[in-house]
Design brief:
46% helix, eight-stranded mixed beta sheet, alpha/beta, 272 residues, Rossmann fold
Length: 272
């Protein structure tokens, strides 16, 4: 199981294929296996790199008392330096898309392209979005101590489906299977990751500084606020295209893997 030190943690990573590099950043409470379908399809054409973000999977936790999206982006920079990866296409989903935004804005010359999938910018627009992105996540850390994060996460999924419709969760069974096969996240790490996501609105990200070509993907049944953020990216990032993933909810790389993978393949081939 390959690991490499990044900012004081032993980060687990996997690398398959040959060609221009594509680096995948997974969503919160998942791990690198979220991208298995994409890596299986793309490894014949690209150097595919996946890894477990601090607090997740085989990377596990650290002694730091709190995390932030900025810290996750710093870890990504250390990982790419350690692996000697230059100008990859960076593909991030949900929280991984937040990490990708920060990295690409901080290091615009170090990425060949950026894929932002089912994600959101720091700005919170309206009370409903604040409830979902900030308050619910912060409050979830308390019942997690009693019930475990998987039960609480399922309750949050149920709530989102009541707010946005049942299709918003997409192929949730696939997500549940990925979690069942991977290492269990500790309660302490869940709390630090949840608070990092909940405080993303406090992060300063200049989207106009993302000068690399950018592809924004979002599921047709994703929450309304995520579709609104796709419009924000379109209006703010200089070289951007936006595509809707048909039939997909929040996890569009799982819900419609073939469409998503083809979109990434075409984009990565074009920008590298």
């Amino acid at each position: 199981m390959p690991t490499i030190e990044t900012n004081g943690v032993a980060t687990h990573y996997e690398r398959r294929g040959d060609g221009p590099p594509v680096v995948f950043v997974h969503a919160a409470m998942l791990d690198h296996s979220q991208w298995n379908r994409q890596v299986d399809a793309l490894a014949g054409e690209f150097d595919c790199i996946t890894y477990d973000v601090r607090g997740h999977g085989h990377t596990g936790g650290s002694s730091l008392r709190s995390y932030s999206i900025d810290l996750f982006a710093d870890d990504l920079a250390a990982l790419l330096d350690a692996l000697d990866v230059e100008r990859p296409v960076l593909c991030g989903h949900s929280t991984g898309g937040c990490v990708a935004q920060v990295y690409a804005a901080n290091y615009p010359d170090r990425v060949a392209g950026v894929v932002l999938a089912d994600t959101f910018a720091p700005e919170i627009r309206g009370r409903g979005e604040w409830l979902q992105r900030s308050l619910f996540l912060r409050l979830s850390t308390y019942p997690v101590r009693l019930l475990g994060y998987q039960r609480v996460e399922r309750a949050l999924v149920w709530l989102h489906e009541r707010l946005h419709g049942e299709r918003v969760s997409g192929d949730y069974d696939s997500i549940r299977a990925l979690r069942a096969d991977g290492p269990t996240m500790t309660t302490a790490e869940f709390a630090k990751v949840a608070r990092a996501v909940a405080s993303f609105h406090e992060t300063a990200v200049d989207l106009s500084a993302i000068t690399a070509p950018t592809l924004v993907l979002y599921g047709a049944y994703a929450p309304a606020f995520q579709r609104a953020h796709a419009a924000t990216f379109a209006a703010t990032i200089p070289r951007v295209e936006v595509r809707e993933v048909p039939g997909a909810g929040h996890a569009s790389n799982l819900d419609n893997a073939s469409f998503f993978t083809d979109a990434v393949r075409e984009f990565a081939s074009r920008v590298q």
